Amino acid sequence: MRLDIVLRVATKFILPLMLVFALYVQFHGDYGPGGGFQAGVIAAATIIVYGLIYGLPAALRIAPPGLVETMIPLGVLIYATVGVVGMLTGGNFLYYSGLAHDQVHGQEWGVFLVEAGVFVTVFSTMLAIFYAFAGRGR
Amino acid sequence: MTLLAAVTIGIIRARDLISVVVLLGIYSFLMATVMVILDAVDVAMTEASVGAGISTVLMLGTLYLTRIEEARPVHSVVLPLFVAGATAAVLLWATPEMPPFGSPGVPVVAAGPDYLGRSVPDTGIPNVVTSTLASYRGFDTLGETVVIFTAGIGVLVLLKRLPRGGRGGDTNTKV
User: Fold this and answer.
1) First vs last C-alpha separation in chain B
2) Is the model's pLDDT at B86 over the cut of 90?
3) Which residues sit opposite B69 in a β-bridge?
4) What's the gap in Å between the CA of A137 and the closest CA on chain B?
5) Which of A46, A113, A129 best probes binding to B when mutated, by most B CB atoms within 10 angstroms?
6) Which of A138, A135, A127, A133 is nearest to A49 (CA)?
7) Do B130 and A132 touch (CB under 8 A)?
8) pLDDT tens-digit map of A31-55
9) Kindly report the CA angle at A27 between A24 and A28, in degrees rounded to 5?
10) Are A95 and A86 in contact (CB under 8 A)?
């Protein structure tokens, strides 16, 4: 498959669009459909497509397995930290309203950070599973 | 729905596992269209990307490691058939007890307008799915994230850094 010129060129066209779409789904999740989970899966699919067409080592160069494995717990930590910060500002766990000066802004920040945590964990988990499966075949 | 049934029968009939994987991808896309018809665009997106995208790739990757022909069943089919039939009978028996779709008084329908009205003043987020998942039910979503985390860790524990082909002295190489 690595010699197939059509697939290689088409992939190069599609990949940036996929990445931008993942970011759009992530940051536009407040207004349109989508959110951290969907965006994470799409972003992971971008790397997976790259790995399928250009070979696993190329994908491993973009997203090294060490980084990916660090990101799996990092996302959960981001999420939980937002919750603990909510407690420090005088509310319950995952209390967003105290994160900014007024309540609506705090909620927006809370949701944004939490979605970022979900994105990081989902993205890296999907990628780690793909690496684990693809790496076995060699 | 007819297409769904046709694809399901195809999945059961086919013995070539690669065509089964492709049919499963088609099934996921059909389910995604069903979700769009039901106005659940977020779920449709998840179904299309996870069901049709990632899991297809993972299953093809698994097929690459194993054989692509389905093995002949070793045991008799009577017991699985009985279990499946009994489960289906229980589910069908319980279905009439469910309240009719969209009937008032069901918690989902009763609480919905409250959240729809509160979302923008409370959180400033017009997409109620996002505000519900991330804010009102943030604890749930934290649990879901931990589930994904656990799944990833589990796969890594099972599949990573195993010695390849039993060769000695190769145990230190990362796979």
Assistant:
1) 43
2) yes
3) B16
4) 6
5) A129
6) A127
7) no
8) 777 778 888 888 888 888 888 888 8
9) 70
10) yes
Contact A85, A99 (CB under 8 A): yes
Quickly count: other Cβ atoms within 10 Å of residue B94's Cβ: 9
Domain count for chain A, please give it: 1
Amino acid, res. A38: Q
Q: What is the pLDDT of residues B8-60, one digit of tens each?
A: 888 777 778 888 888 888 888 888 888 888 878 888 888 888 888 888 888 88
B20: three-class secondary structure by DSSP: helix
DSSP label at residue A68: H
User: Is B142 in contact with A124 (CB distance < 8 Å)?
Assistant: no
A36-A7-A38 Cα angle (round to 5)? 10
Range of the domain at A130: 5-136
CA angle B30–B32–B38, rounded 5-degree value: 110
Q: Quick check: A128 and A68 in contact, CB under 8 A?
A: yes
Alpha carbons A9 and A30: distance in angstroms, whole number: 34
Backbone angles phi, psi at B13, to 5 degrees: -75, -35
| C-beta atoms surrounding A19 within 10 Å | 14
Bridge partners (DSSP) of residue B16 are B69
Q: Which residues of B touch A76 (CB under 8 A)?
A: 142, 145-146, 149
